[in-house]
Specification:
Layout (H helix, E strand, L loop, with lengths): L3 H20 L3 E6 L3 E4 L8 E9 L4 E9 L7 E5 L6 E6 L3 E16 L5 E20 L2 H8 L3 H12 L9 H16 L9 H15 L8 H18 L5 E3 L2 E3 L6 H20 L5 H13 L3 H17 L8 H22 L3 H14 L3 H11 L6
Parallel strand pairs: 2-8
Antiparallel strand pairs: 1-3, 3-6, 4-7, 5-6, 7-8, 9-10
Length: 381
């Protein structure tokens, strides 16, 4: 009869062998110097991207490397360093569009046969990235029209660009289209063909964000404009409709049911619009959940919290959030915490959420007012 000690030792050995086999699996990484290119003159080094194949053999032997890039070689792009079989390549792009990249490495492992001979088995490992590289254009004409504040003309010229096949996958013409509409709204410019330039700006921005696979909106000139646009919608649609209590925001209340309904609908519409013009819709979802819960739509509010709170708790930084996104998140967390306490009858869920975000808003006056006056008061509940 085997002793328990022997069985336990055997299990440990089996687990160790399994972990070693797992650890020896080869891996592949695709590393790139950048993912967005603004086309300059042909032959310019700014049109180039370096990509590397980083293969960890883990006891195997690399046989070969193969790169595949969408589009037509020597027409849409060309190799300026290496070729499709190199571990390090440099590619110069010549045409606007989104490009998919596939990297495949073939490797071999030794297998010992029953007769004592050794046979080499080959395997493949790959990294496939759809729309991995975005190539855009400065669109100097539209840039100049925007600089001249000729917003009606900008709308018309940008509209011409968005229908050109060359720019089918490029968000840039839609960004300028949105800038034109927004400029018309700010300057109160009229055109019989454009009924609501603000709504049109939202629609154009939403399209641009949907097409922005690799971060054109992170370019400073576009990011600054997007933040201003988001702030306009957030402030006018939501922030200015909130009330103040001890220095922190609370949801609007009114004994006049018609007025309360009107404001609630307007705030929800603003939240919905905001969610389409951000890369971080989570930020506004907490605002929406709080509004819906107060408006007796607990089912929708709870569904939002069930989805977004785990996402929030996994969030480690706000690096890709605009300032407007941060404002929306801070406001949403404060408003949601208030409603969650009402729902739960205790502070456990609100406490965990507030503690997680406190590192980002520790110097914000609204958050400090709520966190210190409310959070600390129920810290031990």
């Amino acid at each position: 009869m085997f002793s328990k000690k022997l069985i336990f030792t055997g299990l440990l050995s089996l687990l160790w062998m399994s972990s070693q086999l797992f650890a020896q699996q080869p891996s592949l990484q695709l590393k790139e110097s950048k993912r967005v290119i603004t086309l300059d003159d042909e032959g310019s080094k700014t049109n180039r991207i370096e990509m590397k194949s980083v293969f960890t053999p883990a006891g195997t032997k690399k046989v070969g490397t193969l790169w595949t890039i969408s589009g037509t070689k020597d027409k849409d792009w060309t190799y300026t360093k290496g070729d499709e079989k190199s571990d390090i390549i440099e590619v110069e792009f010549k045409k606007v569009g989104n490009y998919s990249v596939s990297l495949s490495v073939t490797y071999s492992k030794s297998k010992k046969l029953k007769n004592g001979e050794v046979e080499e088995e080959e395997f493949d490992i790959s990294e496939d990235r759809d729309n991995f590289i975005t190539v855009t254009n400065n669109l100097d004409e539209l840039t100049q029209i925007h600089a001249d504040s000729n917003f009606v003309k900008l709308v018309k010229r940008a509209s011409d660009y968005v229908v050109k096949p060359k720019y089918a996958g490029d968000p840039t013409p839609y960004i300028f289209l949105a800038k034109g509409f927004y400029g018309m709204y700010v300057k109160d410019l009229k055109d019989p063909a454009i009924q609501d330039p603000f709504d049109e700006a939202v629609t154009a921005t939403a399209t641009a964000i949907e097409k922005d696979e690799n971060g054109i909106f992170r370019m400073p000139i576009h990011q600054m404009w997007l933040n201003n646009f988001q702030s306009e919608l957030l402030d006018n649609g939501i922030i200015y409709r909130l009330e103040d209590e001890d220095g922190y925001p609370v949801l609007y209340t009114n004994t006049n049911k018609e007025k309360l309904t009107e404001v609630t609908v307007e705030m929800l519409d603003a939240a919905e619009q905001y969610s389409t013009i951000t890369k971080n819709p989570m930020s506004i979802k907490f605002v929406e959940a709080a509004i819906r819960f107060q408006n007796k739509d607990a089912k929708t509010a709870n569904l939002i919290w069930k989805t977004e709170i785990p996402n929030l708790m996994k969030l480690t930084d706000l690096e890709n959030f605009t300032d407007a996104d941060k404002d929306a998140l801070r406001t949403g967390v404060i408003l949601s915490a208030q409603q969650m306490i009402k729902r739960d009858g205790n502070t456990a869920n609100a406490r965990a959420m507030l503690k997680h975000v406190s590192k980002w808003f520790e110097y914000d006056k609204d958050f400090i007012a709520f966190y210190e006056k409310k959070y600390n008061s129920f810290e031990t509940e």
